[in-house]
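SAMPLE LOG
Freezer: B-3
Tube label: C17
Construct: single chain, 297 aa
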Amino acid sequence: MGKPVSMTGFGRGEASGKGCSWVVELRAVNHRYLDTGIKLPRRFISLEDRIKKEVSSCHTRGRVDVYVTFNDEGFETARLKTDISLAREYFSCLQEIAAELSIPGEPDLTMLASFRDIITPLDAEAGGDILEELWPTLREALVAALEECRKMRQSEGEILQKDLLERLHSFQQKIDGIEGSLPQIMSKRETALKERLDILLAGVDIDPMRLAQEVSILVDKSDVCEEIVRLRSHVEQFAGFLELEEPVGRRLDFLVQEFLREVNTIASKISNAETAHLTVGMKNDLEKIREQVQNLE
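STRUCTURE (predicted):
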């Protein structure tokens, strides 16, 4: 049996090395496309693309939030640089604003410190030696979090698969019920049409053969054999997709829409009370199936 994967999961990973440690927490929820959000210390912002690449290797859909915590245990990361020329420009601008607006006092160091691009960590530069040193340990924690999340998603996926197959079986039983009642429904429909035409055409001379042809045409318009054949084909495809060990959520979502299209056609063609009851039940099944499919990657 295949193992479709849920989009919902949680993972946590830790790794230590090079005099520091990393903790990565990962939360994944439903989303139409892959949307990755990363929160990590600003000085390591250059590692964001690498983290996204690792996430995309395990997730194809879903909102994935990654929270990265860095613990300095002796690794020297507080290497800073100052941009003196930029500081002079800020200071000059502040003096100009104070003079123009008649603000008392002079700009001070506290004001300049609020501009973060004046003092920046050296290791925040992409491609720096420090980042290359730190990345393997961070990646180890990230991979551990992704793996834990994958196991949770896979476990939930198996539960969803079982539930979907049960609901699909219920849906298929209703298809069988409609198909089994078709001969009786068509016969009743033909009799009712003849009786109605007899009343409407009372005293009118009409060719019996022509009348039979017209009745036959009207009855054919109520025939839903094609819709039932397509529904059975969709059911077979749906069950087949659930056996695949790959992302199938979008394909299943498309099939659910096709299911609903055929059911609506059947409901519009046959006004029989028993059939109406079955189509309402089929729509309820499809709504529950659709809700579960939204959880699959």
